[in-house]
Amino acid sequence: MVPEWYTKSINSMSMKKLIVGNWKMNLNMQEASLYLHKLTNMVPAQRTIEVVIAPTMLTLQSLSTQINRRRFKLAAQNCYWRDSGAYTGEVPAAHLRGIADYAIIGHSERRYLFAESDKETRAKVQAAMRNHIQPILCIGETASERANNETNDVLHDQLLGGLANLTADELNRLVVAYEPVWAIGTGDNATPDDVKQAVKIIRRHIGQLFGAAPAKEVRVLYGGSVNKDNASSYLRTEGVDGLLIGGASLDAHQFTEIIEQAYKLEGGREA
């Protein structure tokens, strides 16, 4: 049973632009605390967009006691699908409940460095849902898959693998992030048109699975070597509802500038 407060919270956020900073394996507890303090002073209070930071698992608990959730939200970079058991080193979604608002699931580094399968990704999406955490499902093709014109098939398979068994109502509590592996840290950035075409494919496949209305309403982010110089062009791209930012989010000044760009595109600040 989904609590009423959770449903209301999701509905209030579902139409906002979403800016997510993925710190990956960077910033220890002291550095993370100082960063959050700096970001709080630099970013004005507003209601027009949603800003999320994803620290390491170790610093997540610490920041949860410091963060002002009316200003920022927290995301876990990963989670395990079992709620408890003999799984040494894993952190279950059940332990993140009440700490993380979001969980990044199926990130390309999880898929290609740790051989995470679509089956595992699907189980993590369901675990996050079960524990009232919004999944950010990451999908995207490699350079070789792109060269072989397999983008459509890859996105279809990763969406089907990650979203199987979800209902249209549950889809409202999920975010999809398109992160082409070939554009991450390679210097070969995706163009806004590349992103536009990929987002069309994503929404088409979601429409085939869940219907036209959910496909239109689900938030789709772009992530792939995003920085202050290209963020605005991606935010202006048709069908893009926000950004998943890696390295640039480690620089509070650059991350703030990207947030400012999103504010302006949404009509300015609203205290």
Could you please describe the fold and organization of this structure?
- The longest helix is centred in the C-terminal third of the chain and has 19 residues, at 192-210.
- The chain has helices at 4-13, 29-42, 57-64, 93-96, 108-113, 118-130, 143-147, 151-163, 168-171, 192-210, 212-217, 231-235, 252-265; strands at residues 17-22, 49-54, 73-76, 102-105, 134-139, 175-178, 219-222, 242-245.
- The chain is globular, with a radius of gyration of 17 Å.
- Helix 2 crosses helix 3, helix 6 crosses helix 8 and helix 8 crosses helix 10.
- It contains 13 helices and eight strands.
- It has 271 residues and is α/β, with parallel strands linked by helices.
- The mean pLDDT is 92.
- Strands 7-6-5-4-3-2-1-8 form an eight-stranded parallel beta sheet.
- The protein has a single domain (69-265), classed as Aldolase class I (TIM Barrel, Alpha-Beta Barrel), CATH 3.20.20.70.
- The relative contact order is 0.14.
Task: Provide the fold topology.
Elements: H1 4-13, E1 17-22, H2 29-42, E2 49-54, H3 57-64, E3 73-76, H4 93-96, E4 102-105, H5 108-113, H6 118-130, E5 134-139, H7 143-147, H8 151-163, H9 168-171, E6 175-178, H10 192-210, H11 212-217, E7 219-222, H12 231-235, E8 242-245, H13 252-265
